[in-house]
Amino acid sequence: MAALFFLGLTATAAHVSPRGALLRSRRVRSFPALSSVPSDAPPSKSLKAMTMFSNTYAKNTGTFFCSDPGIAAVVIKGLAEHKDQLGAPLCPCRHYDDKAAEAKDGFWNCPCTPMRERHECHCMLFLKPDDEFAGDRQDISLEEVAQLIAAMP
Ligand code: SF4
């Protein structure tokens, strides 16, 4: 769970690299965008949809979730929240001045253009097999996502 640190930073600062933050620190921080969601709330339709999407997309692209499953859980949750709020799964790891405009533009809707073109996921949801943070999983259940989110500080 320690690797969740980066999401607390990237929710407010677009220039912060998740990978750099991971390398610099193992401290845990909460993800501000998630803090308003009650931990005992039932999983939403969007959370289920984004979990299914992530599992399928990882397999289709030959990428893997981070060895810390909390990373996948919190990114999936962020995508689901944006899907609910904006109608599109805008990347949750960036700062936007105008989220609605960004969602309409589509460049950062998951899978974003850098991921589709170069397999670059700065959220570390979809990692190349040789990435130092890549785990061996391409599958996470909705229940595990919900449990990991509920356990977050
Ligand atoms: S693929 Fe792109 S939009 Fe999706 S989580 Fe990764 S960086 Fe964000």
UniProtKB/TrEMBL annotation:
Organism name: Diacronema lutheri (Unicellular marine alga)
Catalysed reaction, written as an equation: [thioredoxin]-disulfide + 2 reduced [2Fe-2S]-[ferredoxin] + 2 H(+) = [thioredoxin]-dithiol + 2 oxidized [2Fe-2S]-[ferredoxin]
Ranges that cross the membrane: none
Protein name: ferredoxin:thioredoxin reductase
Required cofactor(s): [4Fe-4S] cluster
InterPro entries: FTR_bsu (IPR004209), FTR_bsu_sf (IPR036644)
Function, as annotated: Catalytic subunit of the ferredoxin-thioredoxin reductase (FTR), which catalyzes the two-electron reduction of thioredoxins by the electrons provided by reduced ferredoxin.
Assembly and oligomerization: Heterodimer of subunit A (variable subunit) and subunit B (catalytic subunit). Heterodimeric FTR forms a complex with ferredoxin and thioredoxin.
One Gene Ontology molecular-function label: 4 iron, 4 sulfur cluster binding
Taxonomy, superkingdom: Eukaryota
Coiled-coil annotated residue ranges, if any: none
